[in-house]
Amino acid sequence: MTDDLVVRPLAGPEELDLFLGLSYTLDHELADDLGSGRRRPEWLWVALRGGRLLGRIAWWTKKAGGDPLALDFFDLAPDLPAGEAREVGRRLLAAAMPAVVPAGAVPPEFNRYLPADWREVPETRDRVELLFSLLAETGARPLVERLRLEWLPGTPVAEPTGRLAFRPVRDREDLLALMTPVMEGTLDAHGRADLSEGLTLREAAERHYDEEFPHYSSPREWWQVAELPGTGEPVGFVIPARNNYNPIIAYIGVLPAHRGHGYIDEILAHGTRILAGTDVPRVRAATDVGNVPMAAAFARAGYVNFQRQVDYVWDAPGASRS
Predict the structure, then answer these.
(1) Which of 41-45, 99-103, 184-188 has the highest mean pLDDT?
(2) Is the predicted pLDDT of residue 322 greater than 60, yes or no?
(3) Which of 179, 206, 246, 257 is deepest in the core (most CB within 10 A)?
(4) Beta bridge partners of 254
(5) Residue 257 DSSP class
(6) Nearest partner of 73 among 124, 116, 135, judged by Cα
(7) CA distance 36 to 32
(8) What angle do CA 18, 96, 53 make, to 5 degrees?
(9) How far apart are CA 123 and CA 170, in angstroms?
(10) Which of 94, 73, 67 is nearest to 5 (CA)?
(11) How far is residue 218's CA from residue 50's CA, in Å, rounded to a whole number?
(12) Tens digit of pLDDT for each residue in 239-249?
């Protein structure tokens, strides 16, 4: 029964322990996120009965003062019967989403980190698919499943071969001039979604740059362009960076004219070396499951698939679902 269910946001940071009554892989980030403004108490909602936490949901943004950019917590008590869990989840979504998402706005993307074998464990699969079905009831649809990858210190990094020379990215225009052709034929689901909206290759590249790259606090000198020695002809680029949580390979690409020659391995190795040289505990990266060539390149470079990520999106009214 859910007639005595209380669904509400946290009253303040002092209630974080209540929210932590359920478990998810991002729990350890919550306190710092609240302190930095990347989360707000009014974005963290709980469903309670008699003081017992039955469900929770939360949103995140890149920096204090921003609109919610991701729905990344949605958990239901694992011992709830399926029917009751479904009703608690519906009540959470129905109460929290209109309160958090600005009126008339498309809800931000839902991201869920999952064990790499989540489909092979029936209990995990059933709970995850319940969450997905509840999101679908609100109009969300699956966009992509991604591999979350990790390189650890001590893993060998390929030495330079001399086939490529590297220089720092000069400025925004320098990088956009390379990102634009890389968007052509992209296997990345988010990039394809941008293009399906009607954006040009250049506009899609600008969106990617402006929504992500300015938020990195790490040195811009790490951003590297790969060129053919002697001629200076650009071949590709790599963006090693630090986000709010980890050192990452934020973006990597090979220009269409130079694909198929194995350059991706050397570019990835160069980006990994830059981060490894700063004595990091790990390097994280991600690529779509469907981007088989990029996944293979990460595997050759010693990156291990430690998790999956599933993304759901809500379309703008009238948008194509192609």
Answers:
(1) 41-45
(2) no
(3) 179
(4) 236
(5) G
(6) 135
(7) 6
(8) 25
(9) 50
(10) 94
(11) 46
(12) 999 999 999 99
184-234, pLDDT tens digit by residue? 989 999 999 999 999 999 999 999 999 999 989 899 999 999 999 999 999
33 vs 39: CA distance, rounded Å: 5
Cβ-contact 67, 22 below 8 angstroms: no
Closest CA to 286 of 253, 266, 309: 309
Instruction: List the beta strands (DSSP E) in 37-90.
Output: 44-49, 52-60, 70-76
**Hey, is 97 helix, strand or coil?**
helix
Residue 120, C-beta contacts closer than 8 angstroms, at least 6 positions apart? none
Q: What is the dihedral sign for C-alpha 193, 194, 197, 201?
A: negative
Could you tell me the two tokens for 208? 């990617």
d(CA 85, CA 198): 39
Closest CA to 107 of 320, 310, 309, 312: 312
- Burial of 264 (C-beta count, 10 Å sphere; 0-12/13-18/19+): buried
CA dist 192 and 292 (Å) reads 16
What's at 300, amino acid-wise?
R
Backbone φ and ψ for 167, nearest 5 degrees, come out as -140, 155
Chain centroid to CA 35: how far? 21
What pLDDT, on a 0 to 100 scale, did the predictor assign at position 99?
97
Q: Are 160 and 266 in contact (CB under 8 A)?
A: yes
160 touches 270 (CB < 8 A): yes
Sign of the four-CA dihedral 288, 290, 295, 297: negative
Alpha helices in the chain (DSSP H): 16-19, 30-36, 82-100, 122-137, 172-182, 189-196, 201-212, 263-276, 292-300
Distance in angstroms between the alpha carbons of the first and the last residue of the chain: 39
Span 57-94, pLDDT tens digits: 999 999 999 999 999 999 999 999 999 999 999 999 99
Tokens of 97: 């989403």
